[in-house]
Amino acid sequence: MGEIVNLNRARKAKAKAAQETQAAENRVRFGLTKEEKRKRAAQDAAAKKHLDGHKLD
Fold first, then answer.
1. Which of 1, 45, 48, 56 has its CA 20 to 30 A from that of 15?
2. H or E element: which one contains 37?
3. Region Disordered: which residues (predicted)?
């Protein structure tokens, strides 16, 4: 006789696996490289410095 399978648990496991693969694809597609993150951080710092330089007391 075959092994008893909880269909609800199997369905949830299949859905979770599909979500994990979708998340991995999204990280590759929409994620930033280390260089892009560093460049964006530098731009944000420069913009903040520029705005703080024009602050009125």
1. 1
2. helix 34-53
3. 1-57
CA atoms within 13 A on the CB side of 20: 6
Under DSSP, is residue 2 helix (H, G, I), strand (E, B) or coil? coil
- Reported as half-sphere exposure (CB side, CA atoms, 13 A), residue 16 has a value of 6
Contact present, 40 and 32 (Cβ < 8 Å):
yes
> pLDDT of the chain along its 57 residues, tens only?
789 999 999 999 999 999 999 999 999 999 988 999 999 999 999 999 999 999 887
Taking the C-alpha atoms of residue 17 and residue 26, their distance in angstroms, rounded to an integer, is 14
**What is the Cα–Cα distance from 42 to 55, expressed in whole angstroms?**
20
CA distance 42 to 54: 19
